[in-house]
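Re: the request from the purification team.
They wanted to know what the chain is likely to look like in 3D before they choose a buffer screen. I agreed to run a prediction and write the result into the notebook, where they can find it.
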Amino acid sequence: MRGVLFLVGLLISAPLWAAEAPEQLRLAAEYPVEGLPQGNLSGLTRCGDELLAVSDRVDNQLYRLKPIGGLLQAEAETFLAPPPPPSNLPWGVRARSWAVSMLRGNELDFEGITCDQAGNRYLVSEALAAVLQIPVSGEPTWLMLPDNLVRQARASGMLLHFNALLEGIAVDPKGERLWLAAERERRGLMVVHRQQATWRCTGGCVIFSEAGTEAPPAPTGSGQRMPRDFSDVAFFEEKLFTLERLAHQICRRKPSNGEVERCWSFVEEGLADTRRYGVPFGVAEGLWIDADGAWVGLDNGGKARGDGERRPIVWRFSAPKGGWSGK
């Protein structure tokens, strides 16, 4: 009798389980990116009518992505970053970043880009835990971030490991609030507020911090548990949206404390046979959200996917049913 009741319970609860599964985003278009040096697309944003990208292998250029015949052509905009401010990262992490920069030939390791409504661009340097602002007119400058930003992040368990530092950046349209995403081990979110020429933490720099591991989605064929991660963050209609590379999903979060409200998956589209890269981890690195959908940039590191394509890819997903603010 208990066995029968158990089976009945499963049947009754099955629809509830199904409802809890993230809605699948649907691919509207995908674009190979031509002309991006070394193929490393590490950050993506939209600035006015232009789609912009950065590469973690290039210190003096960002890229306008122009649609041409089914692909995106990368057109370089060159800039000169001034000497960076002193880094508050520990010596060991900085030493490893320096050693890798000698091999790569660049030192700033730009991992994210965002834009405010005035057209100012903000690039986050993982190697330095610093933000470079490229204004509409004038010379680039490093933001004067709070001295205690890195200290608070490390006290929360973030920014402790080489190559697991700042990975994403978002700004509100007025350019008054700036969010930074820590990649993994632990992943987390920080926010700073602009006060004239400087930036301050109001009520603490860290708004969210999370440890833990999870297995990649089943289509990867790997059961190896890996650290939860953020690979980018975007701001849209007073909400934060995190790109979660390992889980192949986008989540909407509260900008005040990072609490997750809803997630949408791109497993079915992103891990289709022709689009799979044969690695257990994800390759989605850049995120931009608008009313009509999401732009997601892939840093494939030169690896070929199932159909043989080796160029970086930008996906355009349609907005979910009910829009991004839906329950």
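For the purification team: Residues 1-19 have pLDDT under 50 and may be disordered.
Please add any questions underneath this entry.
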